[in-house]
Amino acid sequence: MTIAISTPEMKLSSPLVQHKRKALSFVQRGLLLLVILLTALPVLAQAVPDPTAVTLPAPTGAYSVGRTIFEWTDTSRDEIYSDVDGEMRELVVWIWYPAEPAADAQPAAYTPGLMGDLLEQGFGLNTDHILAEAFADEPIAGTSEQYPVLVFSHGNGSLLPFYSALLVELASHGYMVVGIQHTYNAPITVFADGRVITANADEVSSESVQYWSEDTAFVIDQLEALNVGSDQFAGRLDLSHLGVFGHSFGGAAAAEFCLSDSRCDAGVNIDGSYSGAAVEQGVTQPFMQVFSDTTCEQVVASGGIPSLEACQQILQQNQTGWQNIFETAVPSYSVRIAGSRHATFSDGPFLQSLVPQFADGATIDSERAWRITSDYLLGFFNHYINNEDVVLLDGPSSDYPEVTFERREN
């Protein structure tokens, strides 16, 4: 059984309702959890400087981009991160899609309603200063066209909207991009009734990655129902062409889903480690791993991991997991981007004028890194989801000298 709520772009004004769970305050948890997995940053100890507007890169595809938000409750699964008896798994899901906005439509808020208010109250981060080209609840482009679907998971401790630049770009090229906010694994998850759930999942594990994989399966179930419903999405989702991807722990969850569910046609792990069954078994679908240029010395120096020995142990585990994927996926791709860091693949590099602590030592230009990441993901999904010929996947490209590229047929 599913409980579903469609929220018109989360127009929230109700007061905060603190969810009962193991108490960890929003302010204490927030910024540390916004930075992703291996690049822990210090909590803001001083006021954020007066911001200037930050405009994320303009999407380059043929379509304008709409954005809408759903809430779905999986009544078949208990919430493993809560101490509240009988609590079911609840998810907030954002969909970016090809749209035909009205001539006078204005871009949607980067973080709508209460989420934006809390970020400003907690950290002084006014997301009204962040401009992304997505329009709330505008009509889907065309009258009957179906669009292939890409399902995305954020990194553990990150927020879904902090990937807007990449997700809007993919949607502008004709994809329905479905982003899952994994409740209790994000600093804040805001529901339409005003409830706010803060993070309660310090450790990621095989159990966690399986739980996220189940989130993905559940969301796709809901997309199937949406596709035959009465919403504007009815008949517009081409779920026979489905890609799954994620950043950091979300990338591990993508691999786990592809292992367990045949609905996955192709998957991408963006700079994530591996845990769960995929570490041992690999996957058989086409799969791409995008690597940052981060070293253990850099991670230890940043305080992300306490020692070189601990980092090297994690690195060895990650290499083992990737090697099994690389040897089983049909085919597999490795893309390493020189000068990048773990947070390069989020919006973090574009937001350094608002939050200087988002600077993570990357030497590659932020927009160049976004362009490279977008092009390789588009090339991969265009080929394996849309059956297009893509020269970029044939081998190393002189257009991308920053990329170390490897392909294995298997």
- Helix-strand pattern, N to C? EEHEEEHEEEHEEEHEHEHEHHEHE
Strand content: 15-25%
CATH homologous superfamily descriptor? Alpha/Beta hydrolase fold, catalytic domain
Q: What number of domains?
A: 1
**Mean pLDDT, nearest integer?**
87
Distance from first to last alpha carbon: 40 Å
CATH topology: Rossmann fold
Helix content: 25-40%
The rounded Rg comes to: 20 Å
Q: Helices and strands: which structural class?
A: alpha/beta
Strand count, sense and barrel status of the largest sheet are: 11 strands, mixed
Number of continuous helical runs: 9
CATH architecture group name: 3-Layer(aba) Sandwich
What can be said about this structure in brief?
The chain is 28% helix and 23% strand. The chain has 410 residues and is α/β, with parallel strands linked by helices. Strands 1, 4, 5, 7, 8, 9, 12, 13, 14, 15 and 16 form an eleven-stranded mixed sheet that branches. Strands 2-11-10 form a three-stranded mixed sheet, covered by helices on one side.
General description of the model:
By secondary structure, the protein is α/β, with parallel strands linked by helices. It has a single domain (2-408), classed as 3-Layer(aba) Sandwich (Rossmann fold). The protein is built from nine helices and 16 strands. It has helices at 26-34, 113-123, 164-172, 206-227, 249-260, 278-281, 296-302, 308-328, 366-384; strands at residues 2-7, 17-18, 54-55, 64-78, 88-99, 130-131, 135-136, 147-153, 176-181, 188-190, 195-198, 237-247, 266-270, 287-291, 332-337, 403-408. Strands 1, 4, 5, 7, 8, 9, 12, 13, 14, 15 and 16 form an eleven-stranded mixed β-sheet that branches. Strands 2-11-10 form a three-stranded mixed β-sheet, with helices on one face. Helix 3 (164-172) packs across helix 9, helix 4 packs across helix 5 and helix 7 (296-302) crosses helix 8. The longest helix is centred in the middle third of the chain and has 22 residues, at 206-227. It starts with a strand and ends with a strand. Residues 10-50 have low confidence and may be disordered.
